[in-house]
Automatic annotation (TrEMBL):
Organism: Altererythrobacter litoralis
Gene3D superfamilies for this protein: 3.30.300.20, P-loop containing nucleotide triphosphate hydrolases (3.40.50.300)
Protein name stated in the entry: GTPase Der
Domain of life: Bacteria
Domain EngA-type G residue range list: 3-167, 189-370
Amino acid sequence: MKPQVIIIGRPNVGKSTLFNRLVGKKLALVDDQPGVTRDRRMGDADIAGMAFTIVDTAGWEDDDPETLPGRMRKQTEVSLEGADAALFVIDARAGLTPLDEEIGRWLRGQSVPVVLVANKAEGRAGEGGVLESYSLGLGEPIAISAEHGEGVADLFGALWPIIGAKAEAAETAAEFALSEGEEAPLGPLKLAIVGRPNAGKSTLINRLLGEDRLLTGPEAGITRDSIAVDWQWTDPKSGDVRDVRLIDTAGMRKKRNVVEKLEKLSVADARRAVDFAEVVVLLLDATQGLEHQDLKIADMVLQEGRALMVAINKWDVAEDPSKLFNGIRHALDEGLAQVRGLPLFAVSAKTGKGLDDLLRAAFELRESWSKRVPTAALNRWFDDALEANPPPAPGGKRIKLRYITQAGNRPPRFVVFGTRLDMLPKSYERYLVNGIRKNLGFDAVPVRVVLKSPKNPYAKD
């Protein structure tokens, strides 16, 4: 395993900016206001060939443990367990604060090696803060500018004696596995959990993991960044161990209610998470039922071509469960007619009810979403479909459908070739899509069909 490095510091010192600099992408949300980051976010970092896992954490605040900032601090403290090094980031321009000194005292009592990082040190404005930071007793500070990329080479020099040997060992092990001809394992199931605020998305993931990995609480909208957690699930029926990448996302409210810049950034980040997912679980709150916003989220997921499942959470406190389940089933079929029969589950993040069934179905749904149909079998179905229901002949002009091919998968895409396809009614296109889903094993997967006619060589441009 690659060495793990944790970024720690009080709010607004540039921890997420440093994280983004080291991973080479803008993964973590960054804003001028303090306290943007609330959950731990991991990324693959590389400095001059030294590869390691970097972990961004919430800003350290001196608050009651029961408050939201207090729970965020607890998450940061837990993140240090198992780490190989810590980057303690201070704001060189602001100078040392009492909170910096408190964090420094706590870090001195830990067994993890600490590298002191004086961020925002570009220009003369940061010189005083760099000199002042020596008083923390954590060795020579590394002066950097995470925003402009200055001082990264010095950071490499400070980290190499701590994690260099482990990074080299991890790289050697990976190269050896490739040289021995080991097959690369199949990628983990990328499973994103989406829904309105306070539906219990983070609580559900914590239940699956068996630990308080993500910050939760009664406050709506706690999650801001989309957080990915790699995990292994053991199927209790078969005993198979399967790799899963769980992706928690920010709650999505009605667009007109989203006015704050930070919430807009969070929702945009959640949408990007859907793009990278394979299967998406839309989590509903059993105490609130299915609302119009849920259907809008579901439609967005289907428009992106992701495989979609729906789970009704808080089932342990649902009133008249049978009526609720059947009502949501009917509303989904009516509101999302393009994918009738979406997988629907009753679950409880509190008790764990239904979660294994949900995961088992998610793997099956990914198989359908990734499926390819042999051309011969596809065209046998196509011929039968045309014979059972020939295309219409508007105005006496015959529409000829010649053949069909699968152009891609994940999501499944098909191309139908023929003549006068611009005259083919939408209802007949729906007939073909429904037939593909029903007869070729695509069930509730979003299927796309494109019509193509050969270009008329005699037509004028």
